[in-house]
Amino acid sequence: KVVNRYGEESKVAIRAIRREANETLKKMKKQSEITEDEQKDGEKQIQDLTDEYVKKVDGTGKEKEKEILEF
User: Fold this and answer.
1) What are residue 33's phi and psi, to 5 degrees?
2) Structural contact between residues 40 and 29, judged by C-beta atoms closer than 8 angstroms
3) What is the pLDDT of residues 7-65, one digit of tens each?
4) Nearest alpha-carbon partner for 39 in 50, 9, 47, 54
5) Can you tell me the distance from the alpha carbon of 21 to that of 8, in angstroms, rounded to the nearest whole number?
6) Residue among 69, 47, 63 nearest 6 (CA)
7) Buried b (16+ CB within 10 A) or exposed e, 20-44
8) Inter-CA distances, 12 with 22, 41, 51, 67, Å
9) What pLDDT score does 15 carry?
């Protein structure tokens, strides 16, 4: 249970970082610092990174759960 809780907390933190990054891109677009295409590309890159790290958290959580159950 503890491992799952830490995993969920990690995923929430990752998603919060994604939200902040997307908000930054929106502000930059609003101030005409970047184009709409650059904003969309940035959002896609951020989503890809988010997915990658959520998978890593899930994988690590499953490994630790197996490790604990072996004892």
Assistant:
1) -80, -25
2) no
3) 999 999 999 999 999 999 999 999 999 999 999 999 999 999 999 999 999 999 888 88
4) 47
5) 20
6) 63
7) ebbeebeeebeeeebeeeebeebee
8) 15, 23, 12, 24
9) 97
CA distances from 21 to 15, 31, 46, 69 (A): 10, 15, 7, 37
pLDDT at 69: 79
Q: What is the pLDDT of residue 63?
A: 86
Tokens coding 25: 């891109």
User: What is the Cα Rg of the chain in Å?
Assistant: 17
